[in-house]
């Protein structure tokens, strides 16, 4: 029995929240049943010839044998490493509980909110979404700032309790039956949908499908269709451009890695991240090492599909 706590790693408060969830979960399931990235990979002190690759190997080793996952996702800009891990687990039939304290919901018509995250694919692959979206009750703290802090702390505590309870009551993992894999799935960018990737894939001589959920009248239904089409493809071409890899692209890259599908990540203007002791990482390290090819031109994409 192993439960994975997926959380953003790049600020102290995000790591502290992940530790808080892990501690609560360990009290219910036992410390040995909980895997907390960064903490349990000893990232602060780990020394390796290629540190980012070693971290990827340690994390994916755990992802391959999970009982369940709880993933912390907050705000309109979602961590691409967490989304990659969500996709990896979901592709293996692992129930994923999404925990958020974000009070926003989303739609495309400006009227009735239709889904809970910027990309409806998140909701499509999650087993449960737990929202702790309201502040806790007012307290008799010494000043208004302390009172506000108390209300946020109690909101987090309530959300963590609900999320852990949902995780522990999720069904056992059921590995999906493998699908016949053929053709290419194109994950278009939500920012620049006409990137030319569909034409580049078709010029390789392979049949190709492109994501529809960003333009469909029923985005949630189209998200399920996108997930199924990606699962039935032999290769994934994903546009990973943006401040971070878009969440849907990250989910599908994780799923493709779990299914051992070929992954071509397209970013015409690469951006690298740097951290002490690590090699420069192209995008999030989970995206970098899950991708078989980092393409910067459309001709790179075509050549990658022909090889």
Overview of this structure, please?
It is built from ten helices and twelve strands. The protein is of the alpha/beta class. It has a five-stranded parallel β-sheet, with helices on both faces. A five-stranded parallel β-sheet has the order 7-6-8-9-12, sandwiched between helices. Strands 10-11 form a two-stranded antiparallel sheet. The termini are far apart.
Describe the protein's topology:
Layout: E1 3-6, H1 12-29, E2 34-35, H2 51-63, E3 68-72, H3 80-91, E4 96-100, H4 120-125, E5 128-131, H5 144-168, E6 184-187, H6 197-202, E7 208-210, H7 219-231, E8 235-239, H8 247-259, E9 262-266, E10 272-273, E11 281-282, H9 285-290, E12 293-295, H10 298-306
Parallel strand pairs: 1-2, 1-3, 3-4, 4-5, 6-7, 6-8, 8-9, 9-12
Antiparallel strand pairs: 10-11
Helix pairs in contact: 1-5, 3-8
């Amino acid at each position: 029995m192993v439960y994975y706590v997926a959380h953003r790693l790049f600020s102290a408060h995000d790591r502290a929240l992940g530790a808080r969830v892990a501690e609560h979960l360990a009290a219910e399931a036992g410390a040995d049943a909980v895997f907390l990235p960064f903490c349990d990979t000893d990232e602060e002190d780990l020394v390796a010839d290629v540190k980012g690759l070693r971290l990827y190997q340690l994390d994916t080793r755990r992802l391959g044998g999970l009982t369940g996952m709880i993933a912390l996702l907050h705000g309109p800009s979602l961590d691409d490493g967490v989304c990659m891990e969500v996709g990896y687990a979901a592709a293996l039939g692992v129930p994923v509980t999404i925990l958020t304290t974000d009070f926003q919901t989303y739609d495309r018509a400006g009227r009735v909110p239709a889904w809970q995250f910027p990309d409806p694919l998140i909701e499509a692959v999650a087993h449960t979404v737990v929202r702790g979206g309201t502040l806790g009750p007012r307290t008799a703290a010494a000043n208004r700032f302390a009172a506000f802090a108390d209300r946020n702390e109690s909101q987090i505590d309530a959300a963590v309790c609900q999320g852990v309870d949902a995780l522990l009551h999720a069904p056992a993992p059921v590995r999906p039956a493998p699908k016949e894999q053929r053709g290419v799935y194109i994950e278009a960018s939500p920012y620049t949908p006409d990137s030319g990737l569909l034409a580049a894939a078709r010029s390789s001589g392979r049949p190709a499908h492109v994501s529809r959920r960003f333009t469909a009248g029923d985005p949630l239904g189209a998200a399920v269709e996108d997930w199924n089409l990606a699962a039935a493809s032999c290769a994934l071409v994903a546009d990973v451009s943006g401040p971070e890899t878009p969440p849907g692209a990250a989910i599908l890259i994780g799923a493709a890695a779990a299914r051992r599908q070929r992954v071509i990540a397209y970013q015409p203007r690469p951006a690298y991240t740097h951290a002490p002791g690590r090699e420069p990482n192209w995008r999030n390290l989970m995206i970098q090492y899950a991708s078989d090819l980092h393409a910067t031109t459309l001709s790179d994409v075509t050549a990658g599909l022909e090889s």
